[in-house]
Amino acid sequence: DGGITQSPKYLFRKEGQNVTLSCEQNLNHDAMYWYRQDPGQGLRLIYYSQIVNDFQKGDIAEGYSVSREKKESFPLTVTSAQKNPTAFYLCASRRAPPPLDTEAFFGQGTRLTVV
Amino acid sequence: QKEVEQNSGPLSVPEGAIASLNCTYSDRGSQSFFWYRQYSGKSPELIMFIYSNGDKEDGRFTAQLNKASQYVSLLIRDSQPSDSATYLCAARPSNSGNTGKLIFGQGTTLQVKP
Hints:
The structure holds 2 protein chains of 2 kinds. Chain A is built from no helices and 11 strands. By secondary structure, chain A is mostly beta strands. The model of chain A has no long low-confidence stretch (mean pLDDT 90). Chain B has strands at residues 4-5, 11-14, 19-25, 32-38, 45-50, 54-58, 61-66, 71-76, 85-92, 103-104, 108-113. In chain B, strand 6 and strand 7 form a beta hairpin. Chain B is mainly β. At the A-B interface, strand 5 of A face strand 5 and strand 9 of B.
């Protein structure tokens, strides 16, 4: 089945640690996105990539880094510079850019907690 | 002022009633609007999108857009307990180009009581 797979589902990070969240898609989508969701809040865009080897900062990129070495994969690293990383992280992908406005498919999310 | 604003609720309706969810946006140039449903602890799923002024119907769901008032709404007819979830409104900002970026509201929690 085609879809987006995020792993792990739950992740615990110690203070000062970098952690990497995985996002893999087998939908052959060009565009991929990382969002962060805090309790009672909507989604905020961290980074996005429209093509392999290219990515752009979103609205809250500080303390995060990404790579896009393969079309299928868009991992997110939460660095120690991110002071408040506890949140629900969602990866999404889209087949084609607007104005075709194809649906964005979301992964199941990774819940990151600082311990 | 938030760019996309929703009442966080909870909005409580009895089973079988019409649930009305509202959303306002500040970017007058926004052209596309999306409604997502998110169950607790799960990822959002797209219910509907709307571009043009007026109504768009899909089954029990109707999206309404009024660009002059910068207002989007989602009506759910014959509400079921399974509709209980958080509903996220999203707008594509006018400066998003072909990036597919969306600005999300904080979501409205809907509770449908049997």
